[in-house]
Specification:
single chain, mainly alpha
């Protein structure tokens, strides 16, 4: 498990939530879509880290 990678994923999620919120406030659908995409990327990154953790547990 990489704490650094998990922290980056959390940061990307926060960035995405902020951008989505900005898009809602300004009515900009592009900002909303980009914000949602960043949140999805964060979920994928977390999933990758979960897989790494599970593999490491099985090896140890």
């Amino acid at each position: 498990m990489s704490i650094e990678d998990r922290a980056k994923a959390v940061g990307k999620n926060i960035e995405g939530k902020a951008q989505e919120a900005l898009g809602k406030v300004t009515g900009d659908p592009e900002d909303k879509a980009e914000g949602k995409a960043k949140q999805a990327e964060s979920e994928v990154r977390h999933g990758i880290e979960d897989v790494k953790d599970n593999i490491k547990k099985k090896i140890d």
